Amino acid sequence: MKKENCVGLDHAFRFFRKKFFKKPMAKGIDRPLYRNICKDFNKMIVDGIEEGKRMQVPHRLGHLWYMKYQTNYDKPYIDWNETRHSDKTIYHLNLDSDGYSGKLKWDRQPSCMTNLIYYSFKIARGNKNRIVKGFYKPNGHKKYFE
Predict the structure, then answer these.
(1) I need a labelling partner for 20 at 20 to 30 A (CA). Which of 57, 92, 94, 140 fits?
(2) Number of folded domains that form the chain
(3) Does residue 4 lie in a domain region?
């Protein structure tokens, strides 16, 4: 049985306040400022991924990048929206990206943490949509790794 514990910015802010409460650097940092700093950092990471770079996550937690792969036409994904409006099953062929699909990858190998295989990474919907829109632009997939 899989138990999902999602940690967000609120959890991170509580941890920050608890750990650095007595230090002078934490005195002027309130919750909205902390959220803005984290959101700007995440935007910077997504901008790098959008440009086709392999971004290093701080504290040696690995690398993030968007990986493209050739669509398997033996088992293509079903386009449920189009299938609902027609009488037959319609598949995603990814013709707008020359038959490529993509997914966000997290390389955990360079990390120094133990038991990292039990952790997962889930990107926020808005950031993910920004990356995907760039991927499906004309010739947008050419800058990503295979």
Answers:
(1) 57
(2) 1
(3) no
